Amino acid sequence: AKGEGKGRSQFFHAQMDIDYHYRQRLKTDLRDAVAADALTLVFQPLLDIDSRRVVSCEALARWTHPELGAIAPTTFIPLAEEMGIISQITDFVVRSAVAQCSQWSGDIGVAVNVSARDFRGLDLPSLVDRALREADLAPSRLELEVTETAVIEERELAQSVLQSLSARGISIALDDFGTGYSSLSYLSALPFSKLKIDRSFVQDIAGDERALSLLANVARLGRDLDLTVVAEGVETEEQLNAMLEHTGIQQVQGYLFSRPLPARDIAELIGRLNG
Ligand code: C2E
Ligand code: CA
Ligand code: CA
Ligand code: CA
After folding, report:
1. Nearest alpha-carbon partner for 113 in 239, 219, 227, 260
2. Could you report the per-residue pLDDT of 163-174, keeping only the tens digit for each?
3. Cα-flanking dihedrals φ and ψ of residue 65, to 5°?
4. Distance CA 84, CA 181 (A)
5. Confidence (pLDDT) at 19
6. Which residue from 201, 125, 197 is spatially nearest to 166, judged by alpha carbons?
7. Which residues form the EAL domain (predicted)?
8. Which of 117, 98, 118, 116 is nearest to 108 (CA)?
9. In this structure, what DSSP letter does residue 173 have?
10. Which of 135, 167, 215, 222 could be joined to 227 by an S-S link, Cβ 3.0–4.6 Å?
11. Cβ–Cβ < 8 Å for 166, 194
12. Ligand 1 — pocket residues by CB below 6 A?
């Protein structure tokens, strides 16, 4: 048993070494990729639940490592935050997303994810002003998504930055709602116009009455606050039907409608669904 224990701990050390070296390598390569403008964007549509028309698209960052292949944003975004280079990524995402949006037919909007670090690391209002001016896009077409965790980590700064963005006509969405803190007091203090309910609330609603009732109640909370309520992660017709019948959810996003797509394909999808 002793020998086994020793072997296992050696294994753990070896594993930690691999993790450590892997992370170091990713960090070095991510720094280079960001400097070389090698990240790309994909877009996923948000649809109006009744008309099934695309109302906006969320921009999501992608990194394809030359040797390791696709690295998930849930891996490289936290690394970028840790390294202090997330602002460069946000700057790139805002400018490219706004430029793409100006190519789309109709008045379809674009949503960009903002990190807690961006409140300190960036002058978001001027970045946004510049991007909108360069693309000649109305502020009402841009939406910024922030998480509960981000606004609570940077409460006062977040409040003033979000107020100034909102005063320009940019909408602010609260992302991943329900996964963060349980205090809801910040909800009325910040200028949100949209609530995106995390997909963990959607997952089990087909065939689980308690899950459906929970989702319906979260949606009602959003409606009572005059927010547009979005369900994330809709994957099946059953989930969609349950939502249509039992919740006041207004917009939906998920693999049922479309995976995130490169710019060229999303423009075609918009044409097909809204044309
Ligand atoms: P998020 O902001 O909640 O984005 C939605 C995520 O859910 C995306 O994952 C999307 O591909 C995925 N998704 C959409 N529909 C479905 C579905 O029906 N089922 C399932 N299982 N998943 C679905 P992705 O692109 O891997 O991004 C993960 C997270 O990484 C994002 O979560 C966001 O927090 C972060 N992220 C991505 N791009 C950016 C960015 O440009 N800036 C920042 N700060 N964060 C980003
Ligand atoms: Ca988001
Ligand atoms: Ca989300
Ligand atoms: Ca998320």
Report:
1. 260
2. 999 999 999 999
3. -75, 135
4. 25
5. 87
6. 125
7. 23-274
8. 98
9. E
10. 222
11. no
12. 44, 60-61, 72-74, 77, 93, 113, 115, 175-176, 199, 233-235, 253-255, 260
Average pLDDT, the chain: 93
Centre of ligand 3 to C-alpha 2, Å, is 47
pLDDT confidence of residue 175: 95
Rg (CA), the chain: 20
Residue nearest ligand 1's atom 8 by CA: 60
Taken in order 233, 239, 243, 244, is the CA torsion positive or negative? Answer: positive
Ligand closest to CA 115: 1
pTM across the whole model: 0.94
Q: Find the 176 Cα to ligand 3 centroid distance in Å.
A: 4
Using the structure block, give the residue that is written with the tokens 């903002």. Answer: 114
Between the CA of 8 and the centroid of ligand 3 the distance, in Å, is 38
Cα of 217 from ligand 3 centre, angstroms: 18
Query: DSSP character for 236?
Result: -
CA distance 142 to 98: 7
* ipTM of this predicted structure: 0.97
CB 82 within 8 A of CB 63: no
